[in-house]
Specification:
CATH class of chain B: Alpha Beta
Strand content of chain B: 25-35%
Largest sheet of chain B: 8 strands, antiparallel
Radius of gyration of chain A: 23 Å
Strand order of the largest sheet of chain B: 1-2-5-6-9-12-13-14
Strand content of chain A: 35-45%
Largest interface: A-B, 23 and 40 residues
Largest sheet of chain A: 7 strands, mixed
Distance between the termini of chain A: 46 Å
Distance between the termini of chain B: 63 Å
CATH superfamily of chain B: ApbE-like domains
Helix content of chain A: 10-25%
Order of helices and strands of chain B: HEEHHHHEEHEEEEEEEEHHEEE
Strand order of the largest sheet of chain A: 3-2-4-7-1-5-6
Shape of chain A: elongated
Radius of gyration of chain B: 22 Å
Oligomer: heterodimer
Number of domains of chain A: 2
Helix content of chain B: 25-40%
Amino acid sequence: MERREFFKKVVITPFLIPLFLAAKKTKNACELYLIEDNPEEFLPLILEELHDYVANYGHSFAFLNSHPHENDLRRILSQRGLTYTQAPAQADLTLSFSSLHEKTLPSFTLIREGRIWDIRSRKLYSLWREMNKNQRRSSCLTTVSFKSAPSNPLSGKYVSVHKEGSKLGMISLKENVTKSYRTRGGEITLRVKDGKAWVPESSCRHKICLHSPPVSFAGERIICVPNHFLLEIKGSRYIDTSIG
Amino acid sequence: MARKLCILLLASFILLPGCGVKERWHTSTILAFDTICEINIFCSSSTFKSAQEEVQRVFSEIESLFSPGADDYSSPLVLDLFQRALKVYQDSNGCFDITVAPLSQVWGFFSKSYVVPAPEQIKSALKLIGMEKIEERNATLILMPDVGLDWGAIAKGFGIDLASKSLVQMGISNGFINAGGDLYCWGNNPSDQRWNIGLKHPRESGFLGVLSISDLGAATTGDYQRYFVKNGFRYHHVFDPRTGYPAQGKQSVTVCGPETLICDALSTALFVSREPEIIMEKYPDYGAIIVDSDGSLSFLGKTYPFNPIE
């Protein structure tokens, strides 16, 4: 499905728009809007997939209001190792129920960092399509708020390589490569493996770059002054620069 | 008619980006202050070129005036920075002091020979320390014999302030200059938000947390930046001007506030001082993030948005 079509289909459910606007203002890491008569069937699947992206979403859950499927949801979440608590303020995950004015196609929408999460490239998408195809319309909206921040908000994606004041290029952290660069000061080698980057060899005198621990978080960097060489990790929510 | 309008609209869309000079984000690195300095600004390509030259010019001037051994004591910039340094010296009860050069000397930090000096050597170096040994007379600094200046804990911040002021005057309204850990940022970042500045963890790889700031400077003093290890003990470059030994009790101090030169000097003063909260009372616009020697995090002074990373 084309991007525009995907968003059209998500946002076309007009009653969700005010909710999206509210979600933008919250500090929650992620908000899930699930329209489905039997949320307990789909919630565990969504949580499982979310684990990689909103991992560390904590272990406790609570209900903000009474939910028609509260018992089923409690059972299913407890089976997944989450603990029920009565105090929503302390819970990492809060669930609430609302009834829609009119019935609509079952689906779910995720809002992350104030934006609709485009899940088309994720495994979640097949689930979303499957639900959306279901003609059994529903008016049961379950909202789940994930309080804690996404895990590794800073984990990097690329190494950006700079030599003598200009950027040479980017290398994906998924790659497994060793590259050497000739510089005015001599030669420096960059190694990328297992999502980390480091300098295994350098012709410089003090070898500060060589002793720098491997970098993997967005914004982290290794600097070699004699070679006028800088490598920096870039990522989705990357830090603009770093000090210290 | 409708078609004509369409063509007109289309034409204006194609032409619009052509009008005026296109601005975009530019990044470059230059070598100065013994480190790689990073400039990231939003402007046109031609402005970027002059901005780079301007930063280079300012930094070269600061380096020539304030590097170890520099002896132009009547330049207006030197006199200006001397007065600023003197104020922090007084406010910090001598914890920040630009006369620590003889200590860096006996500990081998200038010659990079790194030795633990004999107590007598430290004692005689201590006799040369204290800003009362400098006098400003007829617009020139007069130093008592053998007194040496080390501007290392304030000059970089001064240079960044001067350079970023220049860039703002050139009409650049978003950007930052980061000179190896001393930084000034202004306006917004490329995502149109405050700048997110990662604070390096003093012991591990990764970050301690992220400062989200704008129109502010920040500087860090740490025991891990320049040090040597002898007999299993870490001797770093931040000396307590009163004992002559590397200051104890903290791993790093980061200060955030309106002027980078004050951040720079205060981070050293707080690192050395055993009563940093008394110093901070005199600087209500500044905030400090302190990592004690046991790794615990504490905050002093004004609160700036900081997200610690677990």
